[in-house]
Every structure is written in structure tokens, then in C-alpha cells.
Amino acid sequence: MVVSAPPKPTSTDARPFLKWAGGKTKLLPQYQPCLPQRWSRYHEPFLGGGALFFRLQSGENPPAVARLTDVNPELINVYRCVRDRLGPVIALLELHQLRHSKDYYYDLRSQHELPPVERAARFIYLNKTCFNGLYRENRKGRFNVPMGSYKNPGICNIEMLTAASEVLQRCEIEQEDFTHVLDHAKGKRDFVYLDPPYFPISATSNFTSYSRDAFGAEQHEQLRDVCLKLAKRGVKVMLSNSNCEFVRELYDDSVFELQEITAARSINSKAKNRGKITELLITTY
Ligand SMILES: C[S@@+](CC[C@H](N)C(=O)[O-])C[C@H]1O[C@@H](n2cnc3c(N)ncnc32)[C@H](O)[C@@H]1O
Q: 270 pLDDT exceeds 60?
């Protein structure tokens, strides 16, 4: 009997391999018409699950060069290991998949100081099996999300990881603060997509406040200044944020165009607070 090998994943199959709070997959159809026409270098300084980056791979204009960055060192370690050490990551994930149980989850969650590949596989395993795919740390910077309840958490999706690894080969991946985008995006061939932790629309809506690196009004002001500098250089800037007075006032400069996007809010512990809201998509081109 001849058994043919499964088709090799291509860049058109690449999609986010992590669940990420604030991930943009559902909004991408609304973003599509707002993308710039001409550019060749892509920068995503708040990478998270990288929904837009992966979607661009299957578009008419996949980025020739991409620089993907985030302040979260564990997240960046995962992307680098998926790019450079996929075989060992998959081998460990297969083991985690086989052993998955409540005890196993909490045992692995409590392990620290592991080498990079082990940390990457641990991160993916916890991401797929924890409550709502949330990433939250305690004050010591230890991941502290409880286990979720999934019948089939899809811990090791080899095809998805292989497709992601393939497109990540062309990317520079760094752990850094968003302000460093100014060192790299220099002119009109650069397109920067910024998706920061949103400014809260209410006192209870900011789930990102659990993380080590809080992102408050001061950081949002700094981010607006970065956008102004980029725009002056002719860089094409696109930014997502919540639709609230603070953000509208912050981007009240003729260089920015503000558009409302309709979104379903899913990260809210109270079901009655999950509904349709609008967000802002802010562009400079
Ligand atoms: C809303 S999420 C991005 C979601 C992503 N666009 C997606 O589709 O999944 C925001 C990201 O910003 C990162 N972040 C928070 N503060 C940062 C900072 N000062 N510099 C760079 N990244 C930061 C967080 O680690 C998180 O991954």
C-alpha cells in the first residue's frame, strides 16, 4: 500500500498558534479595507498572537521583511523556538498532550528556570489548557491562570505549528518595549501595526492590569507620541484601541484618521457584559 505524505503546509495556512486576549482574528475582515496600499517592511510591536501578521501572509502583499516584537519575554521565547527549534518543541508538546491531566497542569505550571525549548512547550501547553487562554502573572512574574475545562484542547497541532514556523523564518523576533519601533521604522516603505493593551472603557474592563507591565494613561500618551514621530517620517501607521473619550482626544490631530469598528467583547467574566461594542482603528495614510 502506498501512503502519501500529508501535504506540506504553506504560508497561506499560517494562522495564530496561540490563544491571545485581545487577539484580532475576528476583526480582520473589517481591517482589510483599511490596510495601506504600498509597503514592504512590516513591524508589529505588540505581537501577542499576531493575528494580522499571519493573515497578511495569505494576502496579495505578504511582507518581505517583518519585525515582530513584544515586551513579554516568555511569549518571544515561544516565537523564537517555533521558528528555530520546532522539532524539539513538537516532541515535548506530544509528551504534554499524552500526559495532560489536572495534576500534570499544576505541576508544569509550578516549574520555572527551564531551558528555552522546555519553556516554549510549557507555554504552548498552558496556553491551550488554561482558563480562556489568558496570560496573567502574579507579582513575582509567575504565570498563575487556573486550568480551563476543554474536552479537546488541541495541545499539539503539528500542521499549524509547521505553517507558522515557515513564515516566521523571514522574521526578526525581539523582546523589547514598543518605543524601539522608532529605531527600525524609518520611512514610507514601513508599515507599523500597533495593538496595545486597550485603554479601559470602564473601571472593571481592563483585564491587562493583572500583568507585570501595566499599560496606563502615561504609556498611551507615549504611544501617541511614537505614532506622531513615525507619521512625520512617512511611515504608515495603523493602531487599534478602545472607543472612548480619552483615546479620541489623544489622537485628535489631523494626521490621524479615526474609524469605528464593531467588535464582540469576549474577555469579560460576567456574561451580561459580553456584547457588541465599538473600537477605534486609527490610521495615518
Ligand atoms: C492586545 S495584545 C496584542 C494582540 C495581538 N494583536 C493579537 O492579534 O493577538 C497586547 C500585547 O502588548 C504587549 N505589551 C504590553 N505592554 C507592552 C509594551 N510596553 N511594549 C511592547 N509590548 C507590550 C502584551 O504582552 C500583549 O502581548
A: no
Q: Which of 55-59, 224-228, 267-271 has the lowest mean pLDDT?
A: 267-271
Specify burial of residue 171 (Cβ count, 10 A radius: 0-12, 13-18, 19+): buried
pTM, entire model = 0.91
**Separation CA 166–CA 147 (nearest Å):** 30
Q: Return the biggest CA–CA distance within the chain.
A: 68
Q: Does domain 24-79+168-283 have CATH number 3.40.50.300?
A: no
**In sequence order, what are the beta bridge partners of 171?**
66
Residue nearest ligand 1's atom 25 by CA: 72
- Ligand 1: residues with CB < 6 A are 20, 22-24, 45-46, 48-51, 70-72, 177-178, 195-197, 213, 215
pLDDT > 70? residue 48:
yes
| Closest among 129, 161, 153, 157 to 143, alpha carbons compared | 129
User: Using one digit for the tens of pLDDT, what is the confidence trace for 145-203?
Assistant: 999 999 899 999 999 999 999 999 999 999 999 999 999 999 999 999 999 999 998 76
Mutate to test the pocket of ligand 1, among 43, 53, 54, 70 (most ligand atoms within 8 A of CB): 70
Q: Is the pLDDT of residue 7 over 90?
A: no
**Cα separation, 276 vs 263, whole angstroms:** 6
Instruction: Please report the DSSP string for 78-145 in residue order.
Output: HHHHHHH-HHHHHHHHHHHHHH-SHHHHHHHHT--S--HHHHHHHHHHHHHHBGGG---B-TTS-B-P
Report the separation in Å between the CA atom of 215 and the middle of ligand 1, taken as the mean of its atom positions. 10
Task: Please give the distance, rounded to the nearest whole angstrom, from the Cα atom of residue 2 to the centre of ligand 1.
Answer: 47
The enclosing H or E element of 277 equals strand 276-283
**Domain definitions of the chain by residue range:** 24-79+168-283
